[in-house]
């Protein structure tokens, strides 16, 4: 068959090797670090910023692990992921945590892994534990885990956003939010943290929403360079300012009605109208700003001859609706007024009195609050587009009505906020349920 | 805790061994007889029996002197191949391990666990692969370099060479293990902070049997299922007559610690409503029952802290306040736990009751145990090191045996495969073989993958189905064979779990099965290596 | 007594097969041999003629395809007979990480020998093969010749009745070869039977009583060395140096007896004998250059 001599065959091999080497070298030669050096792949890597170090911090153990596994890291990750699931099923939490760490060593730049496992630790694992301190520990673990992800990946604004969301929503909005917010400032491990917060979570001893705001701001900063794929850009960029509102609101929920709260609302208004409101967002009909003057409209319309002033107005309006811009503007504005503060305070006091069984005093406070609140709503009707605002009013009415029932008093024909009550009947059963559980009413 | 210390069925295991081993031998003999008769006629037939007889002759004539001589040779060879360099890796690992491990978990209890885990894993991952390589490499190398020629032309049986190799590597590995184990022990002791030193114990638990009662108080085998995928624990509902009843046998004064009966529990909570979150857990209560004396002694209400050890120490003498107002004890009567509560046969019955309405407590057999006087940490630790020694010996035996009939690299791959399969896939294989897994046949799975057919749809009738079923049956049978033959290495890693969790290694549930598993392979390994060397021309071509 | 057969081979055939059992090489074809006690028997033949195969069959390292083997009256696969056998393999397959003492001790332990005897015998053998200076060095540092020597010592550790040597002189310098030959002859004096195979004919000629020549796995020639090499119709005369006249006279005498003179000239010594002589001289008169007996030397004197 083969008529070539051994020498010819060897020569053929050499030629084949050389021929094959040419594309290998042309494609694969590593870059020396200078611009434009290296093979085609190296140049593409530089061009599209695919090198390890351009993605974030390089963990040497992670890099060496991937090297050792050669091409098998996908398989190894899959196996580990299955292990992690199994540990979760068997409630082996310490092992779950360390397995997740190993997965991360293998896949340090895969955003979904960070996202999912961070969430898993802070929400799912946390909820499996019975004691609130333990739950808080796992929320912290989730945050710490995501923090690491942020360090390793400079180009995912999503991750910063998720961190911020854990600081904000998980700590501030869980069932256990009162304790979580307390622990956020004084960690349950008092011995270790000396009655202070866990420095890895809250180094400056701030409110959880303030920290959340910082992280949202970081996310916004990154978002200018790297596109996020989480939600509509405008909503994404609104997050820090919402955190500011949440901060102010949380104080209120806890019954703090002092200057700090009012300042927080004022700051919120300022941020909302001067920073977020003045940011340009691109709509199908060119850029718009949410906080506008007639000059802005004209100016924006003039930038492109295909766009009319009517277009700009239309899209501004739509975007304002989407972001609930006008509501939050009004809310923040209204919260700085004495009347609003008094209304909130009266309702809050009424609830507290109710809780401690002082029904007569509670009744007085609730009625006062309802009156004041009705005034506020009259003044700022747009507040009625927000759930929290509606619920606050409804809750006051429910408790007030309950006291009347208790004492066998008839409900008067007319009372403040009656229009609200009638309009929002659909929400009542759910709220009644919540209140029953909260106050232990049978 | 996920490990369930089920006592080992020694007799059953032995019977099982006899069945598998006996049938394998029988099949081998029959096959040899048939092949022998076909190729060599009557001479072949008698030859088979002569061969069998030979094994017994040689096995009974092996000389300790010669085996020892070969053992020394083996050890010398390994040492002069600079095997002790492994200690350098070991030292480097330990020098830097502290840095990486200290950050791994923030809780001292988890920290201790990760230290112990690291030490035991590091030792086994260093020693076992090295012994595997040595065991698989030495004999083929001996044959390849023909150094074995000078040995087999001396009056030494070939089986003695095998035994010498096995013994040599075992001794060498044992020495390395002892040194590493000692260093590891010192390292753990120094690394664990003062505040967590109390974690370094070997608890000796006594486990009981568990039954449940439902909310009406009728006996059931299991409690409620709250929808957990893992049906390890069963739940009892609070403020109903639902109980978990643990029965411990063989309890007497010697099980007391400082004259106290110590119960350790770790139940799981399931809440149907938030309840009081700030208390830190759900309330529950033990009731000690002695039906002979009609005694029901309740404990005070206890808080169940989830995923941690809840310890209840009951003083030996306790005031019995007779809450149900019947039986012989009057209010305020002093009773003795071991004399009155434990019945005359040494049984202690403990009922567990959840006290909060609408909340559930989940438990399984190992979740409540009587903690008897602790043993030193060293006791459990050394047993765990012994738990590394056993698989090491097994790996050496398998490696040497396999290297009797294949070349070095092939032997390494084969042994490695067996170890990995035995370590990771035993459960998976059982799942397939027990028929729990749907459409588990290899060809069938391929067919379904390619045709996008889900596993519920029946295969269409016809020749395809016929072929698939025939081939799959063959594969499944082969798998069955592998399942029988491949050792279950998972047994050994259990021992590590005990020590990590602060327990002494259970003799019945871990140590004994490990020893038996290893011992079961001695005879088969010797037989296989005897015949593969006997029938082999030692000329490596 | 002398006729007691130590090795009996009848009809021995060895066929090497490949993995699938197909015939590859017929290494030995119907070989029949008998080696008697006390003789030195040489197996000769070019490379690949089946010498080593025969030896390995005798030792049970290979299994015969056909035919029978009896060594010391036992089948080749019997292990106990090895108590009385010594074997020097082709390349001295020894454990290179052991030193000479450890090597002999290790092999000695495989025999039923008391510890004391084993140690004495090991020390004696090391001296005998001339490795006293290197007994603590690992074998991997040994030269080829030293390896052969320790190989021989290893083969003799049990004071065997039958010694099998595979290429005993290969790789040795002439001095070593001479030593080896001397030791082989010594074995014969002790009444031992030696079976050696070699392709170095001179060595075989010097020591063997009987030889067999194998070619292509078949026995071609067998018999006593003198018988095989004796040229029946030639006479050789060796004298001291003669004058030309004397040579002429001798030619005449030969012619008178109807003989015919083949060649008459000065005999050339073999290189081997020259080499041996040189070494001997060097030992006797260290530090001086050895001047062989040549024409020039004569002239200068």
Please characterize this protein's 3D structure:
Chain C: Keywords: ATP-binding, Hydrolase, Nucleotide-binding, Transport. Chain C: Its EC number is 3.6.3.-. Chain C: InterPro entries: AAA+_ATPase, ABC_transporter-like_ATP-bd, ABC_Transporter_VariousFunc, P-loop_NTPase. Chain C: GO terms for molecular function: ATP binding; ATP hydrolysis activity. The complex is a heterotrimer of chains A (about 450), B (about 550) and C (about 300). Chain A has about 450 residues and is mainly alpha-helical. Chain A contains 22 helices and two strands. In chain A, strand 1 and strand 2 (about 285-290) form a beta hairpin. The radius of gyration of chain A is 29 Å and the shape is globular. With about 550 residues, chain B is an alpha+beta fold. Chain B has three domains: about 15-60; about 60-200 and about 375-535, no CATH class; about 235-365, Jelly Rolls (Sandwich). Helices cover about 55% and strands about 15% of the residues of chain B. Chain B is built from 15 helices and 16 strands. In chain B, strands 2, 3, 5, 8, 9, 10 and 14 form a seven-stranded antiparallel β-sheet that branches. A four-stranded antiparallel β-sheet of chain B has the order 1-16-6-11. In chain B, strand 8 and strand 9 form a beta hairpin. In chain C, strands 5-6-7-3-8-9 form a six-stranded mixed β-sheet, sandwiched between helices. In chain C, helix 5 links the parallel strand 6 (about 160-165) and strand 7. Chain C has two domains: about 5-230, Rossmann fold (3-Layer(aba) Sandwich), CATH 3.40.50.300; about 235-300, no CATH class. Classes of the chains: A mainly alpha (about 450), B alpha+beta (about 550), C alpha/beta (about 300). The interface of B and C includes residues 68, 81, 148 and 149 of B.
